[in-house]
Amino acid sequence: MKSFSIAKSRRVRSSPYTSRIEKQGVTSYTVYNHMLLPAAFGSLEESCKHLKKNVQIWDVAAERQVEIKGKDAAKLVQLMTCRDLSKSKIGRCYYCPLIDDNGNLVNDPVILKLAEDRWWISIADSDVIFFAKGLASGNKYEVKIFEPNVNILAIQGPKSFDLMEKIFGKKIKELKFFGFDYFDFDGVKHLIARSGWSKQGGFEVYVENTKSGLDLYDQLFELGKEFDVKPGCPNLIERIESGLLSYGNDFDNEDNPLECGFEKYVNLESDVTFLGKEKLILIKKNGVKRKLKGVQIDTNRINLTKSLKIKDDRGNFFGELRSACYSPHFKKVIGIAMINEPYCEASKAGILEIEGNSFSVKVCDLPFI
Ligand code: THG
Q: Which of 48, 86, 172, 194 has the CB geometry, 3.0–4.6 Å to 168, for a possible disulfide?
């Protein structure tokens, strides 16, 4: 396959770590929140295997923060998400679908409660800042909304715990999943959460002090040698196997959270006010007509650049394949697809046509592993 390079510019933003990852062998980028997000360091399969066994350092600065600060901050954050945040605690992260007034998804960020009147929305790839500013302005809320200079470094993989302990001490291992706290590195405090876009365990350092963050980056590689540390990035294979969803790939503003498996974070019985609540109550009452599911496909090669139609054996519309990769674990292609009723049940079979060849598709539950 012919390959092309991304033309960098002010608009396609670099991160403070870009020069480092380029020395370390990044081989492809994607663009996420108008910023470079590394997509591969050589073979995806090799990286996936390494991530499951060791520890990787990821430049995920493209997971930008939208800071909401001021008297009405909590009200605005709650207005944007269908997850009930009324009992949320300072020092915790919350995975929250953001919903528009049609009941459709706008983003699926991790939301950090820094203080009652100060929140970070750690966004996936859509312009949440303009949505937030529009709502604040229309509702005359007293808030400041801006993108702070925060560049996340993720430390992921089973050996991330020992590596982080070497740098930050025993206390870091006491962090609960989706909890955060402040930890000292060379006299600088860093906000660190136990989170990250893999199911292999790990941490995210929300770097505000860039200089200290770069020193930390170098230190992670220096002290990580004994754990076979490698540079990495969100891994397509690992994230599909784990059922971690990607806004813009697996779902977007044409889909609602009840179709996407977000039921756990859709609190329609609570008395909090949020956009699209009435719509979602109606959608729930009528029942959803399609669902995001896993699929196994009888082939061992795929490179999706757009969604592909899946049909049943009589040619009727079955669903739409939205992400896919070859999984060394299943020894076939697996993917995430929006499947229509009545085909949503596990083990229903469909047909996918790629360049004139037909492959059989089997529906399964998410996550795969
Ligand atoms: N970390 C941070 N910001 C982010 C991401 C991240 N912003 C963009 C993107 N990733 C948002 N999407 C997700 C999707 C899944 C998870 C986190 C962010 C996730 N889910 C857990 C799971 O599915 O097991 C648990 C969620 C829960 O139950 O609370 O971690 O990765 N900073």
A: 172
